[in-house]
Amino acid sequence: MADPGTRKHKADDRAKYQKLASSIVPRPPLARNTAVAFVVGGLICVVGQAVMNAFIASGMTADEAVGPTLATMILIGVVLTGLSIYHHIGEFAGAGAAVPITGFANTIAAAAMDFKREGYVLGMGAKMFIIAGPVLVYGILAGVTVALIKWLSRG
Amino acid sequence: MANRRIGKSTMRFATPPVIVSAGTVAGPMEGRGPMARWFDEVVPDDMFGERTAEKAERRFMGDAVKIVLKQAAVQPEQVDYFIAGDLLNQIVTASFVAEDLETPFIGVYGACSTSVQGLTLASALVDAGFANLALAATSSHYQTAERQFRYPIELNIQRKSTSQYTATGAGAVLVGQSGGKVRVTEATLGRVVDMGVKDPNQMGPAMAPAAADTIFNHLADTGRDPAFYDVIITGDLGSVGSEILLELMQRRGAPLGDNYADGGVMLFEGVRGTGVGGSGCACSALIMEGFVWKRMCDGEIRRALIVATGALLSPLTWQQGESVPCIANAIALQL
Amino acid sequence: MDYVIAFLVGGAICAVGQVLLDLAKIPPAHMLVLFVVVGAVLSGFGAYDRLVEFAGAGALVPVSGFGHSISRGSLLEARRLGVIGLFTGAFEFTGLGVATAVFFSALIALVANPRT
Fold first, then answer.
1. In chain C, what residues touch B154 (CB-CB under 8 Å)?
2. Superfamily for the B183-334 domain
3. Complex ipTM, two decimals?
4. Chain B interface includes A104 (CB < 8 A)
5. Which residues pair with B136 in a beta bridge?
6. Would the CB atoms of B156 and A115 count as touching at under 8 Å?
7. Is some CB atom of chain A closer than 8 A to the CB atom of B130?
8. Would you call B223 helix, strand, or coil by DSSP?
9. Within a domain: residue A24?
10. Whole domain around residue C82: which residue ranges?
């Protein structure tokens, strides 16, 4: 008997089993997934470009158009999530749906819709960023650190 | 007092208790699969018109219990024990349904192996004379399981090649000393087996070793061949997990033949979007208390070994980098 | 033409993400964090600015663009205001997006329910 509570395992048996299991577990269809992610992700960016061009045409500079473009894409992501469409796109395209900013919006909207069942304060309010949180936290950590280094080194 | 244990880990019931009645209620996805005609009720809306999926799951379990009691013409007051469990934290579905039943309640947790775990305990209590009638039930729901173990429903997440689909539904079974054709003859409860699988998307590969362990022990304890049974059905290994099980049993010198099938595969065969098969407590319950029960009542199946498999992880243990401990519980049903 | 480049660059970034998911078996959340950090770091080298000039939305829409926007805003405001600017600048370009996300997600939660 192994020491109770420690989960000391028989490493050999496990290694043998892992070998057996990995010989049977099917590999993901990498080529198909990558191709679909490429196309869907690319198309979402094309939509973003169209939005950006529209804002620039309305008089903004390229810089000024960045914020509104991202916000519009976020709005699109939220609406598609509300219509129960985005999770199908995600199932189909994987990273093609997760990587664009619309995916970021989807994580927030999906969490909001789901956790409202536990109330709007402790449910939705508290858990809205349960999936997107890491992106914000590490985005700020990395962004501020990089800016700090660059600012200190070159001013 | 006669010793009712045989071999290392199997109970042989003295006056085999019988299944007096069994009932199954399934959701719409399950209704699209080939097992649908064996369910007592297929519900078109998996929310059951309720505001939360958790409430809906209780309706599933409650309805399965109602069907069982009605079939047996038994009042809740006549039931001595209600033995139930589900996937949710603190097995709230079972507890809340128990409240309405007002029957002494034993809450059990075996993850997706709960159906057989509950039936085993119910049978043991009846066989030993502690109960005249014992009711076992279990349920699972796609939305409640996803929310608790994985992600919000509307999240864009891509299933992996080994992902399974949590079944929505419930099964209940009433065990008594007499009044039924199907006898519960032996039960082999499993021990926890963990072969180091850490990926929660690989439930089948995680559980297969536990299934092999329990099946092997059961056969050794009873001195039987796999061919003794008309069917040997695992709860929810999925297509990948069952392939691994076949290989494991082959290597142990007790190869499983054509009489072997997996409940997860049976439940969702041909249904798009369900990965490599069904999972959840309801999976084994729907198959055992729907398909197997009805076919045994017809006489089409005479001897069945049901091996429900469960993955005993929590969302936290996975995040903390732990591997997935699993268990398999086996029960023998004979005419 | 800018649409074609946006498609190719944006698609390529997503394709890299997919390879990380399938081959390197990184959980989706970790992959997204990696991308946002890489975006911020490449921003520091000036490389992401050039990518944005070249590919427009193809560089801005992926979440790496989000990291770049945080980094860029942080740097611009630091130059203007000093240390305080480091932190106020983080949301210079991204604040609009975050506030929009929260506001409209809450609205959608009021009217829409998750469906299996």
1. 114-115
2. Stage V sporulation protein AD (3.40.47.40)
3. 0.94
4. no
5. B83, B173
6. no
7. no
8. coil
9. no
10. 2-111
